[in-house]
């Protein structure tokens, strides 16, 4: 049975998520919602509109995307590190008739699932308690970014969880690499705020394509094939890299 | 179709003992360190085999190669006739592994841990549920199957790990220091389970407890510095230690006098005085009558034969220095 190992591990991860879903969601929703209320509502009267949109509308898609990719990254990195270094469950998987690739693919899918579930819940909460609205058909364009974006960050988490043996290193990488990538990708401000000569470099970063494309998709119903391609190809590259890095680590 | 683990037989001859594990010239090199050095070994099917060695002897490396978790630098390993370099998946479908660490999933209940393992082995739900019921009953964990492993005692956790390794009915069970850290009662309980499995599968055990090897194993190997240095039943190893027989003679008084008297006898190869006890090593047990004659009239309290233990063999072969 092909990939039965990935399925077994993913089912295990979903069982654990189901058991703790309420506390997980409360924690996940609290952070972006606080930012939305503080910046979107609190600062709106000072900022007014950005690129023609009210500021609360401008930041909402980015906050949902941020929740999703953060959840995907965090689940992958900590889950892999914990199962590899603390609980040694990866070792117990490895003595069963499944391949190393099946283990890493399961962890990528789990991170991705966490991202999609948590991002959706934050979206629903923002939709329910704020005036943020969008036409339903825009959701399709948004998902074209959210799905590969969550996969991209899940793969990045798997790579970090594979190569980093100390938890403090994981925390440092998150603070120095992941959060700046998210926050500097136009989540709270338009890219036009950057100096002109820097903008092409910022646009080359896949997270910029993700946040910019997701916002334009959800708010304006615009589809940017270049952005979708940029995010998707980055996800594919990181997927291949994460499988290879994990396999290499396991063979050491 | 019922689920059956794939098994291969290496030797089909009815007279020949069938080998579950065959290791030929196995070498594992880590940069400048040789963890295994031309290691050769055969383990008979259905037997309980013990591997002893001080820390850093190469036991863990050997187990990792046997369980296909690691590749050798050179040499060959066959598990149930299959080469470990090319048949990892097949081999892992027919082995069970109890690692040094418990490696239980603390976010799953005891039963869920076993279910996950069965799913990883591709077992059908109808089959694994019945098997898990049997194993939980056998291990005395049925009443606690819905509890999380963190709430278990060390002994119960160990039994659960053994149960997990048996879910898919393996042909060969690897036990890497299965009773480390357990109290004597729990240790004996695990021994009982291992003994009850004897004959139904091959068991390959590593341990630091020499009594464990003596109690459980049909054959024992001692390794050090990546090499096999002794192999046989524990009795054979003890017999091989030396031809000498050692007696402890406890005296009421005049210990010094009798010590020098015995020390001058040609059949006494070695003599030690410990308080009011004289420990004499005789070249042959037949010398005992000469000793008894020499001690005629001596205030003897007790003469006892000092039994050789596997620990004596182990220490004599690997030295008494502490290893990392």
SSE arrangement:
The complex is a heterodimer of chains A (252) and B (324).
Chain A: H1 4-19, H2 21-41, H3 44-47, E1 49-50, E2 53-54, H4 55-86, H5 89-94, H6 100-129, H7 138-163, H8 167-183, H9 199-204, H10 206-220, H11 225-251
Antiparallel strand pairs in A: 1-2
Helix pairs in contact in A: 1-6, 2-4, 2-6, 4-6, 4-7, 4-10, 6-7, 6-11, 7-10, 7-11, 10-11
Chain B: E1 19-30, E2 33-44, E3 48-52, H1 59-66, E4 74-79, E5 82-83, H2 88-93, E6 95-98, H3 110-120, H4 125-138, H5 154-166, E7 172-176, H6 184-197, E8 202-206, H7 210-216, E9 219-224, E10 227-232, H8 234-241, E11 245-251, H9 255-263, E12 268-274, E13 277-282, H10 288-294, E14 300-305, H11 310-318
Parallel strand pairs in B: 3-8, 3-9, 6-7, 7-8
Antiparallel strand pairs in B: 1-2, 1-4, 4-5, 9-10, 11-13, 11-14, 12-13
Task: Give an overview of the whole structure.
The complex is a heterodimer of chains A (252) and B (324). Chain A has 11 helices and 2 strands, in the order αααββαααααααα. Chain A has 252 residues and is an all-alpha fold. Chain A has one domain (4-251). In chain A, strand 1 (49-50) and strand 2 form a beta hairpin. In chain A, helix 6 packs across helix 7, helix 7 packs parallel to helix 11 (225-251) and helix 10 (206-220) crosses helix 11 (225-251). Chain B is α/β, with parallel strands linked by helices and 324 residues long. Chain B has helices spanning 59-66, 88-93, 110-120, 125-138, 154-166, 184-197, 210-216, 234-241, 255-263, 288-294, 310-318; strands at 19-30, 33-44, 48-52, 74-79, 82-83, 95-98, 172-176, 202-206, 219-224, 227-232, 245-251, 268-274, 277-282, 300-305. In chain B, the strands form 3 sheets. Chain B has a 6-stranded mixed β-sheet, sandwiched between helices. In chain B, strands 2-1-4-5 form a 4-stranded antiparallel β-sheet. A 4-stranded antiparallel β-sheet of chain B has the order 12-13-11-14, with helices on one face. Chain B is elongated and about 75 Å long. Chain B starts with 18 loop residues before the first strand and ends in a 6-residue tail after the last helix.
């Amino acid at each position: 049975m092909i990939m039965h190992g990935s399925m077994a591990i993913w089912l295990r991860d979903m069982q654990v998520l189901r058991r703790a879903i309420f506390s997980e969601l409360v924690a996940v929703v609290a952070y972006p919602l606080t930012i939305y209320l503080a910046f979107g509502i609190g600062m709106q009267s000072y900022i007014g509109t950005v690129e023609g949109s009210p500021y609360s509308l401008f930041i909402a898609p980015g906050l949902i995307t941020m929740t999703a990719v953060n959840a995907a990254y965090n689940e992958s990195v900590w889950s892999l590190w914990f199962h590899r270094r603390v609980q040694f469950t990866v070792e117990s998987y490895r003595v069963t008739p499944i391949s190393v690739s099946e283990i890493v693919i399961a962890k990528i899918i789990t991170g991705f699932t966490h991202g999609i579930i948590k991002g959706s819940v934050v979206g629903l909460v923002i939709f329910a308690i704020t005036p943020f609205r969008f036409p339903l058909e825009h959701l399709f364009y948004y998902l074209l970014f959210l799905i590969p974006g969550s996969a991209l960050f899940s793969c990045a988490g798997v790579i970090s969880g594979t190569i980093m043996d100390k938890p403090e290193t994981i925390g440092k990488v998150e603070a120095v690499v992941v959060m700046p990538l998210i926050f500097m990708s136009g989540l709270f401000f338009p890219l036009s705020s950057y100096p002109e000569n820097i903008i092409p470099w910022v646009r080359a970063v896949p997270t910029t394509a993700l946040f910019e494309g997701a916002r334009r998709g959800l708010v304006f119903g615009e589809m940017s094939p270049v952005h979708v391609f940029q995010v998707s190809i980055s996800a594919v590259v990181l997927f291949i890299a994460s499988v290879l890095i994990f396999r290499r680590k396991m063979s050491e | 179709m019922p689920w059956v683990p794939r098994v291969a037989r290496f030797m089909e001859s009815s007279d020949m003992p069938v080998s579950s594990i065959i290791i030929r010239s196995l070498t594992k090199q880590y940069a400048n360190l040789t963890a295994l050095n031309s290691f050769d070994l055969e383990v008979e099917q259905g037997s309980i085999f013990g591997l002893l060695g001080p820390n850093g002897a190469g036991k863990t490396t050997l187990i990792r190669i046997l369980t296909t978790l690691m590749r050798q630098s050179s040499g060959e390993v066959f598990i149930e006739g299959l080469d470990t370099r090319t048949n990892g998946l097949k081999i892992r479908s027919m082995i069970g592994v109890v690692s040094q660490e418990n490696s239980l999933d603390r976010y799953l209940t005891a039963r869920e841990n076993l279910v996950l393992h069965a799913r990883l082995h591709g077992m059908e739900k109808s089959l694994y549920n019945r098997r898990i019921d049997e194993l939980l009953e056998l291990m005395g964990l049925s009443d606690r199957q819905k509890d999380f492993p963190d709430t278990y005692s060390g002994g119960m956790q160990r039994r659960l790990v053994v149960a997990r390794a048996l879910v898919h009915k393996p042909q060969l069970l690897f036990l890497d220091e299965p009773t480390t850290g357990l109290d004597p009662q729990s240790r004996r309980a695990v021994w009982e389970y291992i003994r009850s499995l004897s004959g139904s599968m091959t068991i390959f055990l590593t341990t630091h407890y020499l009594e464990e090897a003596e109690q459980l194993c049909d054959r024992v190997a001692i390794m050090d510095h990546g090499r096999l240095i002794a192999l046989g039943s524990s009795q054979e190893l003890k017999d091989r230690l030396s031809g000498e027989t050692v007696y402890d003679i406890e005296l009421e008084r005049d210990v010094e006098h009798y010590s020098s008297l015995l020390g001058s006898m040609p059949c006494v190869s070695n003599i030690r005085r410990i308080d009011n006890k004289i420990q004499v090593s005789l070249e042959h047990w037949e010398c005992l009558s000469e000793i008894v004659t020499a001690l005629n009239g001596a205030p003897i309290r007790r003469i006892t034969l000092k039994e050789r233990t596997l620990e004596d063999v182990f220490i004599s072969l690997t030295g008494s220095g502490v290893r990392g």
